[in-house]
Amino acid sequence: MAPATAHPIAWALAVLLAAAALTFFVVLPPIVDDRYNDVEPVAYAATERGQALHEKLLVVDLHADPMLWDRNLLKRTSRGHVDLPRLSDGNVALQVFSAVTKSPWGQNLESNAGSSDRLIPLVIAHAWPPRTWFDIHERALYQAERLRRTAEESGGRLVLVSTRAELDSLIVSKLRGDVVVGALLAMEGLHDLQNNPMRLRELVDAGYRMMAFTHFFDNDLAGSAHGTRKGGLTVFGRQVVELMDSYGVVMDLAHVSEQSMDEILDMVSRPVVVSHTGARGTCSSARNLSDQIIRRVAATGGVIGIGYWETAICGLSPRDIAATARYTADLVGVDHVAIGSDFDGSVVTGLDASQHALVTSALLDFGFEEKEVAKIMGLNALRVLRRVLPE
User: Fold this and answer.
1) CA gap 48, 54 in Å, rounded
2) Model confidence at 4, in pLDDT bands (50, 70, 90)?
């Protein structure tokens, strides 16, 4: 016969396990989200002229990571930076949603190995399917499924864009005043390919249309600006460059080592983007681009997406964003400047997706003409997308 204390002990263990599960799956995720994707409001207000202009723009943000977090993007929330109501408030015509599939423990800007994976507890806590827990390629496919399902449940308020025709249809809808936001899928690093070119085809079939070669560590394709070797393209990386070009995928050089950038730029025949970054000329950081690389990206007809976080622009004010845009435009021309907020990318910003009008106003403050502001806030990015996306 079991001791009389067995039942109380069993109940106590069950309560402890239930409390631990509640903490891990319910309490912890929003706390982590709040900590890593904070907004620190700055003392800057849009002018009447800036607000009026912003309402007429086609706004394109080249980079945000909300799919990583446990939120219903169709509902307004106070957490993080992005949801559909806030995108609509910010008059965003097209948001690029990037999938993060792996991130090393101790992640930093200087040197990271790719041997660890701090996303494992996060995806388990977010109740992602077990197939994604230890398989980074499945994480990419799952995030594509999530965005597709979100669009289907939006009642037409969020539409996926994967072809030139779909992009043109979105622009027509926005110009006639429809309440709609376009969504384009992007990959933040192609480490999930693991030397298998068939996986690239799977990503394309899943809807991915913009892809960065690396994230915070070197991989089978190329060196990362934050890796341990920071080397150039591999043989497999060169194969992927050619495949991406044939598939109509926009090549994103964000996070790529300078040697790999040079080697990719030697190969391309169509515009490339650096979706979210800064310029070393205004903010010296391993994350930011040298004048030489900015010039080479511009020479392809591509664009530089100016980020909204501190290590990109050395501040959080919309004026810091505008100052970086001014520097880049003076260097290579306004046709090669765009925005790439990095919202929800484990960064602190001075605004969220509802407040892009602050950037429009700051650009006017820095002497850009209204037509130039329209280019920076969206038309330049749309030009590149129309050039590269499949028909």
Assistant:
1) 10
2) very low
Cα–Cα distance measured from residue 113 to residue 216, given in angstroms and rounded to the nearest whole number: 8
- The label of the residue with tokens 């799952």 reads 142
What is the predicted pLDDT for the residue at 6?
Answer: 55
Average pLDDT over the chain, rounded to an integer: 93
pLDDT of residue 287: 87
The pLDDT assigned to 13 comes to 60
Block residue for tokens 């979706």? 275
* Residue 143 pLDDT greater than 90, yes or no: yes
**Could you tell me the maximum CA-CA distance found in the chain, to the nearest angstrom?**
86
Return the bridge partners of 335, or none. none
pLDDT digits (tens, 9 = 90+) for 323-356: 999 999 999 999 999 999 999 999 999 999 999 9
Nearest to 254 by CA among 209, 330, 189, 191: 189
Distance, in Å, from the CA atom of 142 to the CA atom of 248, rounded to the nearest integer, reads 22
Structure tokens at 304: 């530089």
Q: Please state whether beta strands 92-99 and 181-188 pair in parallel, antiparallel, or not at all (unpaired).
A: parallel
Domain 37-388 in CATH 3.20.20.140? The answer is: yes
> Rounded to whole angstroms, how far apart are CA atoms 248 and 46?
37
Contact 204, 243 (CB under 8 A): no
Beta-carbon-side half-sphere exposure of residue 386 (alpha carbons within 13 Å) = 13
Query: Do 320 and 256 contact (CB within 8 A), yes or no?
Result: no
Write the secondary structure of 205-234 as one string of H (helix), E (strand) and C (coil): HCCEEEEECCCCCCCCCCCECCECCCCCCC
Q: Could you give the C-alpha distances from 114 to 213, 258, 352, in angstroms and in order?
A: 14, 19, 30
Arithmetic mean of pLDDT, 380-391 = 97
- pLDDT (mean) for 357-382: 98
Token pair, residue 321, equals 């964003």
Separation in Å, CA 289 to CA 20, 86, 293, 379: 44, 30, 6, 22
DSSP string for 155-207: TTSEEE--SHHHHHHHHHHHHTT---EEEEEEEE--GGGTT-HHHHHHHHHTT
Rounded-to-integer distance, Cα 43 and Cα 290, Å: 30
For residues 37 and 80, give the distance between their C-alpha atoms in angstroms, rounded to a whole number.
5
From the CA atom positions of the chain, what is the Rg in Å? 21
The pLDDT, as a whole number, for residue 2 is: 46
Mean pLDDT calculated for residue range 101-124: 95
Q: CA-to-CA distance for 359 and 378, rounded, in angstroms?
A: 12
pTM, rounded to two decimals: 0.93
